[in-house]
Design goal:
The structure holds two protein chains of two kinds.
Chain A lengths: L17 H19 L3 H15 L2 E9 L5 H17 L2 E3 L7 E9 L3 E9 L6 E8 L14 E10 L3 E9 L2 E7 L2 E8 L2 E9 L13 E4 L5 E5 L2 E5 L7 E5 L4 E3 L4 E5 L6 E9 L2 E3 L3 E8 L4 E7 L4 E4 L4 E4 L8 E4 L8 E5 L8 E7 L4 E3 L4 E2 L4 E6 L6 E6 L6 E9 L3
Parallel strand pairs in A: 1-2, 1-3
Antiparallel strand pairs in A: 3-4, 4-5, 6-30, 7-8, 8-9, 9-10, 11-12, 12-13, 13-14, 15-16, 16-17, 17-18, 19-20, 20-21, 21-22, 23-24, 24-25, 25-26, 25-27, 28-29, 29-30
Helix pairs in contact in A: 2-3
Chain B lengths: L1 H14 L15 E5 L15 H7 L7 E3 L5 E3 L2 E6 L5 E6 L13 H11 L4 E5 L2 E5 L7 H4 L9 E2 L4 E2 L4 E7 L4 E6 L12 E5 L4 H9 L5 E4 L12 E16 L6 H13 L2 H8 L4 E3 L6 H4 L20 E6 L5 H16 L2 E5 L7 E7 L5 H11 L12 H12 L4 E14 L2 E2 L2 E2 L5 E2 L4 E2 L5
Helix pairs in contact in B: 10-11
The chains are: A mainly beta, B alpha+beta.
Chain lengths: ~425, ~450
Amino acid sequence: MNGAIYNSPNLQMKLHSSRLRWALCLCILFSQLSFAADWHDPISQLATQITAATGPSVVALEINNHSSISSAEIEEIRREITSSLAASGVRVWQPDQAAANIKLTLSENLQDYVWVAEIQPGTNDAKVILVSTPRPYIAPVGQNAPAITIRATTLASQTDPILDVAVVENTPPRVVVLGRTAVTIQEFANQRWSVVQSLPISSPTPLPRDARGRIFLRKDRLFDAYLPGLGCHSTNSNPIAMSCAPSEDPWPIQSQGLSAFFSPARNFFTGALVPGIGKQNSAPPFYSAAAIPRANYSLWIFAGLDGQVHLLDGINQQVLNRIHWGSDVAAVHPACRSDSLVLADAPESEPAESIQAFEFADREPSVVSPKLTLNGRVTALWSTPGGDSAIAVYRNASTGNYETLQLNLDCGR
Amino acid sequence: MKLFNLILIVAASLASAATANAATRPHYGGTLRVAIQGSPQSVDPTASDSAGFRSLKQLVFETLVKLDGRGRLQPLLATSWQVEPGNQRWRFQVRNGVIFSDGIPLDPASVAASLRTANPEWKVFALGDLVMIETSSPVPNLAAELALPRNSISRRGESALIGTGPFTVAQWDTAKQHLTLQANDQYWGGRPFIDSVEADLGKNDRDQLMLMDLGKSDLIEIAPEDIRRAQGGNRVVMASQPSELLALFFARNAQSDDEIHLRNALGMSIDSAALNSVVFQAAGEPGGALLPNWLSGYAFVYPPGGGGTRLRASHSVTWTLSYDSADPVARIAADRILLNAKDVGITLQVVNSENADIRLVKLAVPSADAETSLSELARELQLPAPTFSNSTISGLYSAESSLLQSHRVIPLIHLRTAVALRTNVHGLKLLLDGSWQLENVWLSSENP
């Protein structure tokens, strides 16, 4: 295995300036509020239709909120509707002096805000007016407390599952994305990621559910990709070409020269190791593994199918009964420390999905970072070949997209 | 690069901000044991069934497209589709690499044959890699209609219908009311996690709970009124959005203004709010709309009966009422309706006949697409197809209002469907129509 071509991130993002931090906060806040504040179209439509129904007159307006719109925004909406109606000759006044009563209910359905105005003009029959406007998803904002900090840099995002990502260049950002159906080469330009080239993966048999895969950059060609029961190799030509063939070759695990056989029709490693760890050439079947280099050996941590964390050091195998992690672990060597740390996702018992860093001073992990909370389940967590960062993929619960993060560990924040 | 850095960290901050449940990676293997009330005679994708059996059928048969959790169309057996101006001619690109469970590849001809059987009024034919659908009048929601279970793609095998889904029917014992589904190793979307599903059919609520308590069932149906009671122990209860419409349906059109008055009096007499709170333990949403509020957004415009205003019947009248006596929900609701009607001078006489004046019906909300749902409800109730003047919310409201103004149907309440599952069952999702998405289910050891 080699780590050629791979560069460590050049995206330092050092927010030493408090001004920049404030700018960041405002930017986040603005991004959250900007959707909700755009009520111009429905207010305009509603005012037009109410005016058409009542003509210039005096009306009473009662607003009920059955939607996810905040109470602060309701007041804003009330003001703007009142103002729009006044501009077209309809004055909002007390019910006892009004020619018509308007009961406006702010509701919503699966996709839209639905505003329903029930107009009761005196003793005549009520008239119902409806307008709708698309309803966005809005994610809440949280924060992390610094210790060792997990720094997350977003990379590519797409609707199809992402199995792994390799960073080709940082300037301009360019990545190779291993998806379930295609390998894509993507570039960040004009504030967004664009697919430069897509290489469909042809497999003689369907990939298993919860398919997994790895992609490694190579010196003599752009990449090799490993998928369950399938191996793919690219060319170094321009445009890049790719060929895939059935393969049960073991997959490289981290940069310690260890490979492991992946079950071709399942979502786990069988446990057979090549060439093995010291005298141990097998581990319990596992989902993921991380190595912590020590002076004379490497301590390997396996997230087993049995939900347990297993340790192998070349001679002994140990189960950490008290440790409850998720299925994905990856080792990262921060520039600021002499040892490697282990990133692990949260166990199912946790209310929220997260990734957290742990150190292994001896054989027991201890927490060294706050949790990086994610809005969706982690579907992949792999150490990068250089070992100084990890690639995490999670499925955004709000958008359904697969989002990729490059995770680095910073000290002393 | 500074701007780029800022964008990245903002995006990363947002990504790291919100929360979602943690989850371990799914395990392969095991058998899911299910007990349900329905006991149909065949595994026919075109038949209407309870949410439980519909869910099992969806493991075997697939549609060209599906609707996601926000009612938006997503590819399934079709990878893309186009409609020509006028909404009368549709093209669907059929997914490559899909095979029926007997090993025969899915192709446009087999898709066309299946859709022709389900929709004899359409002209459906294969054209190269495409399936073409032509209709005699515009059908703007045809794609959403194709997501309905009755439009599942199937092929007639030697003894039964065969599908392309993640499971195949391994055994179907109608005498013992037992269905066994086997994982389809060649499923185009990836083999399911569990190896098989064993379903005991025709089990009433009490039997289902007993099977779960004895450790013989992993997943059972829960009646709306039992949702709260069923919580706790070694099981988890999941309830859907209100997805089953309980309504009174008149067999014929009103013959006079007087009859319309009587029907209005009956509708206003039924205290749906009390029915919901007392009988169904608040497991539903009372209302006078055909579509639930989560689907339309305006259901509250049609208030439920039983409010302050009541009409007295202009003269004494007796109508016959029928309902599915095997359905405990219908039985307890009917008892209440009889009492409410009597209060305004209307006598309802329960009969076990298809020729009753009124039927108490329970209909699943058929689709997460509002217009398709309204059309399907009208179809099931044998009402005239609704006409949508446009695709806006106002067009939907007008169409629903027209159906209600036919005075053939009195909506009473939308009920939730619910299931109880053992704590080792993971990955189950309740869909908007109340059915269960089982294809991603996996099993862990009993006490993880």
